[in-house]
Amino acid sequence: MASLRQALKSGSPATLFAAFLYFDFCFAIWVLNGAMGPFLTQSFHLTPAQTGFMVSIPTLAGALMRFPLGVLSQYIGRKNAAILEMSMIIVAMLYGWLLVDSYGGVMVVGILLGIAGASFGVALALAAGWFPPEHKGLAMGIAGAGNAGTVMALLVAPRVAEAYGWHVVYAGAAAVMLLPLAVMIFFAKEPPDAEHQSLGAHLACLLEADGWSFNLIYVITFGGFIGLSTFLPSFFYAEFGVTKVEAADLTMLAAIMGSAIRAVGGYAADRVGGVAALCVVLMAVIGTFLALTATPSLVITTVLFMVCFAALGAGNGALFQMVPLRWPANTAVASSMIGEIGALGGAILPNAMGLSKQYTGGFATGFLFYAAFSALVLAGLFAWQKKWTRTWVGPWGKAKLAQAEAVAA
Q1: Average pLDDT over residues 150-155
Q2: Whole-number Cα distances in Å, 170 to 40, 89, 165, 174, 331
């Protein structure tokens, strides 16, 4: 516990809290349509494929917005980028409340929800910018644990939708966004690690092989987390005949695990290395996806998803322990790029699951696809880490002593 307190004191706890709150509330708003999936499906009489597409739109839009916001944050500052984004989210939610009354309108709101999904790279870079390399995994894990916003959305949105109608959910989202906005304005401080480089230097990470290796891993860990978070309410509702609120509650149980374990994943990666942690994560993901192809009972399915989400959450924290070690000069841009591709993976999963249900009569094909893909990435990780440990990181992905000394100097 003492070492944990020392790690937090090595940076700016107030900025770390502001970054967590910012990401937490943005994440909650990003997954609103997924949390209300059964309500929207019933309201507009959607097929499984249409439902999968509808809940994937915010994920896809958020993925495409992440990299531009990350680049923008390098020029106006990470704190200012966060303030601008949250202000835009409030306007978008007011639009959803006052002007949407059709399936097409819901799709437009889905695109606007993507604004909230763009927060990832900025939030993590804002938090990690205050911490030395040996504690960046913990800082980014805590900030990234803001994906607990999924739990908040699943807990509140279905109940509000059932009691007052789904339009009111958007109004509430606009109101609660004022809290993280105020905290960001009054408590956060721009990190001292200036990341000002040319646009070409920022874009260069898109062309680096290591970046795409990270992308593939994040397609599984974060893509799996956000994809399942948005689709599981519809999955439980369709597969087991539970009520809409019960479907959200079951999803919430799984999402809690992924959110709570993310910081643990970052902390563990600081200790044993990000590569070692990711190997364990990917093996756990493969095992749970394969078990889910058998369509077990509701209780067993829920437990399997809880284990799967715990692994995915730990993987998110472990991966981003290595990002600032690989790209110390432009962490925000690299984080946004990796987050963008990973979120695209989250857009694929709901569509794959919806199509699997519609054309095969079950979800097993979708689970099997992600298990096979995870196995391929695990094999790739064993190959990639051989180069990484010869160049920019220590054995099994631990920070090199020279990296910590460079920052201290």
Answers
A1: 84
A2: 13, 10, 10, 6, 32
